[in-house]
Design goal:
The complex is a heterodimer of chains A (about 650) and B (about 70).
Chain A: E1 5-11, H1 21-29, E2 30-38, H2 40-43, H3 50-70, E3 75-78, H4 82-93, E4 97-101, H5 106-121, E5 125-129, H6 151-160, H7 197-206, H8 211-225, H9 229-232, H10 245-249, H11 255-272, H12 275-300, H13 322-329, H14 336-348, H15 353-366, H16 371-381, H17 387-397, H18 413-420, H19 425-430, H20 439-442, H21 450-456, H22 471-498, H23 500-506, H24 508-513, H25 516-527, H26 545-548, H27 554-557, H28 586-597, H29 611-628
Parallel strand pairs in A: 1-2, 1-4, 2-3, 4-5
Helix pairs in contact in A: 6-12, 11-12, 12-17, 14-15, 16-17
Chain B: H1 13-24, H2 40-44, H3 47-52, H4 58-70
Classes of the chains: A mainly alpha (about 650), B mainly alpha (about 70).
Chain lengths: ~650, ~70
């Protein structure tokens, strides 16, 4: 503990003072220079959307005030390259060390690693900490050392693991180093465009970003609303869930602290014999778990060129209908529940997890619009837009996860309306044009007798749209789309088989990449005790990967059952975490599927629809691994 | 010293959002133009998106983090 140590604290998505391991370490070691670097260029495809940037700006102002009251100012820098900005900081104050908290999205992973390497070349000490998760993605695996592929199994394991308590005390006083860094004002970061200001003004009325507000929200939730949490999961109207998702996304509240508060409640309620309380605690912890799981999946099963984000939809015949997209965006699809959700999203930057699932499913399955459009729109309008949670959500609704919805599942907004908004209060609040519709018809006004419509002042096609597409037609269209997908997959596969050699040559890298998840954790487990270095598995044996993988989707997708609308009784929610619902069908479908595929954990990588292929390949690969011996040819990828 | 009760009513975040919703629900017009319409065509092909999820060096960055984390 040397008081002369000068440390740079690099803030990213950990905009808090309390339980911030990087900040606490720096404060303990000596002088502290906190910086926030905004480098739009490096964000690339994942440049934050409008409302996300609005939140960020407010939160940074808040953090800066807090740091000032502790004795230092937050330095803002707008940079072309984060490394060069950091080096400027080092030169300006003569710092010797930099600390930050981990992030796990692909962009941050690569950037952080590059920075670590570059700064080490300059003789600078870099230290990073777990500040965003309860469990590091490499800490949780099954008996055999494989990564989990279903949420239930993952979470069961997690709750049995011990986590170190949030015992990092916030610093009482921070001492700045001598020297000044040439930073800029927060406005100069350009987080808010002139044109965006009026839309953003709306958000400021509903939300208060900043870590102290996060703490208040948490405390209020735990004291007053946690006991009723299970109710909030099926009630769309009112504000009943935790509302913590944007705060968690920006690290304004430590997830460990949230966990701890909830656990304390659990202990108290257990002692009091409060069964309802205990049940609600479990449900809420599951929501936190889904956030962990989103990081876990992205990290352990990284997307590759071979395994795209929505791999099972690669050949899906998307309809690029701009008009339909606009109708969805503006809440004019004629399906009240969807429309209400889209209006709430625009007005508040937030919507209930259930509505996220409904609106996104409608987008993909009723409208067959490219899912990327929907994701980009959510990305731009959700305050809690979060890469990993959003990916998990879109995968969940479109048949890309073993325990998610199947692609051929078409929920009727009418049925869902009667389930989650039985009185129609949610719809009435957001769609005043339907305010006088009786509950009986409010979720399907197109069926209402003309007398009822007239009495309610609703003229379909005039003051409220007719359904953008009829449900039966939507079912037919989805069936067609699925069989087209299936055929295209088959064609691609045979084409690939014919041009096998060439394809293999071309796709060497890809074939390598997509195999990663098969072994990544297994390798770690079986060798981590004897070898200190973590090896990246070798993928040189997967030459036939790209070809054999293209088994048609027909197994299930070719036989959708358009007349059977599946319901989602057992869904739980994750709105508190910003993620979409994940485990609705987990109990029912994943158990069934697991029985046929549990031996091969990477099934999740691909569509759950081509289990067989994966099994074949997995076995072949496992055998090869065995033959080759596990110690050979590991660091291929690194080289 | 401190005053035990605040002079003005402190509105919780939840209450603020509730009030905001009541105020704006049904009265917000979603603009005709989102502003990103011209990018839609580009986004239809999700390969840019996919490759952004697999930047160069991802695997070694992951491995290094795990290695460090396990130390």
């Amino acid at each position: 503990m040397s008081s002369t140590c000068k440390t740079i604290v690099w803030f990213r998505k950990d905009l808090r003072i309390d339980d911030n391991p990087a900040l606490a370490t720096a404060a303990r070691d000596g002088q502290v220079l906190p910086v926030y670097i905004w480098c739009p260029k490096e964000e690339g495809q994942f440049y934050p959307g409008r409302v996300s940037r609005w939140w960020l700006q407010q939160s940074l102002v808040h953090l800066n005030q807090s740091l000032k009251s502790l004795g230092v100012s937050l330095v803002f820098m707008k940079a072309e390259s984060t490394v060069s900005a950091l080096l400027r900081c080092f030169e300006a104050v003569g710092a010797t060390k930099i600390v930050y908290n981990h992030l796990y999205d692909p962009v941050s992973l690569v950037r952080d690693h590059t920075i670590k390497v570059k700064l080490a070349e300059h003789g600078i000490c870099v230290q990073s900490f777990k500040g965003d998760l309860l469990y590091e993605p490499w800490e949780v695996y099954d008996e055999e050392g494989h990564a989990f592929t279903t949420f239930n199994a993952f979470w069961r394991k997690c709750v049995n693991l011990s986590i170190e308590p949030a015992s990092v005390f916030p610093p009482w006083k921070l001492v700045p180093p001598a020297g000044t860094v040439d930073g800029c004002s927060i406005e100069e970061l350009g987080l808010e465009d002139e044109l965006e200001k009026s839309s953003n003004a709306l958000l400021g009325k509903g939300w208060s970003p900043g870590w102290t507000n996060a703490d208040k929200t948490l405390a209020e939730f735990v004291d007053r609303h946690l006991i009723d949490y299970s109710n909030s999961r099926v009630r769309l109207e009112g504000v009943t869930s935790s509302l913590l998702s944007p705060y968690l996304h920006f690290g304004e509240v430590s997830v460990r602290k949230v966990f701890q508060c909830i656990r304390m409640k659990q202990i108290i309620w257990a002692k009091e014999g409060n069964l309802l309380g205990e049940k609600n605690v479990k449900l809420f912890l599951r929501s936190l778990g889904l956030r962990e799981y989103s990081r876990y999946l992205c990290f352990n099963f990284p997307f590759t060129q071979e395994r795209s984000l929505m791999n099972n939809l690669r050949f899906f015949p998307w309809r690029s209908e701009h008009g339909d997209f606009k109708a969805w965006r503006q809440g004019k699809t004629g399906y009240p529940l969807v429309d209400a959700g889209m209006r709430e999203l625009w007005a508040t930057g937030w919507m209930h997890n259930r509505i996220r699932v409904i609106a996104a499913s409608f987008f993909v399955k009723f409208l067959l619009l490219p899912w990327t459009w929907g994701m980009k729109y959510f990305w731009d309008t959700l305050l809690d837009a979060d890469l990993e949670s959003d990916i998990l959500g879109w995968q969940y609704i479109s048949g890309s996860l073993p325990d998610g919805h199947k692609l051929n599942r078409l929920d009727s907004p009418q049925v869902q309306g009667s389930k989650f908004d039985p009185e129609g209060e949610y719809v009435r609040q957001w769609l005043p044009e339907l305010a006088r519709m009786p509950s009986e018809w409010i979720h399907h006004p197109w069926n209402a007798p003309s007398l009822v419509l007239r009495a309610a002042g609703v003229e379909l096609g005039l003051n409220y749209p007719k359904p953008i597409i009829d449900i039966d037609l939507a079912k037919e269209r989805l069936v067609d789309a699925l069989s087209t997908t299936c055929q295209a997959e088959t064609t691609a596969r045979s084409a690939n088989a014919n041009g096998m050699e060439e394809v293999v040559m071309d796709n060497m890298d890809r074939a390598e990449n997509w195999k990663i998840p098969v072994v990544v954790l297994k390798e770690n487990v079986s060798h981590s005790t004897s070898l200190s270095d973590q090896r990246v598995p070798s993928f040189q044996n997967c030459k036939n990967g790209s070809a054999s993988r293209k088994r048609p989707l027909c197994v299930e997708a070719g036989r959708p059952s358009p007349n059977k609308i599946q319901s989602n009784d057992c869904e739980s929610e994750t709105s508190g975490t910003g993620g979409l619902d994940l485990h609705s069908t987990a109990e029912s479908t994943s158990a069934k599927r697991q029985s046929t595929s549990s031996a091969l954990p990477f099934m999740v990588l691909d569509s759950s629809l081509n289990v067989e292929v994966l099994q074949e390949k997995g076995l072949a690969y496992a055998m090869k691994q065995q033959n080759e011996g596990t110690s050979k040819g590991r660091n291929q990828l690194e080289a | 010293y401190y005053s035990p009760l605040p002079a003005v009513e402190v509105v919780s975040g939840r209450e603020r959002l509730k009030r905001h919703r009541n105020e704006v629900a049904g009265r917000v017009w979603i603009p005709d133009l989102w502003g990103h319409e011209k990018l839609l065509k580009e986004w239809t092909d999700c390969s840019a998106f996919d490759s952004a999820l697999f930047p160069n060096g991802l695997m070694s960055a992951r491995a290094a983090l795990v290695r460090e984390g396990r130390r």
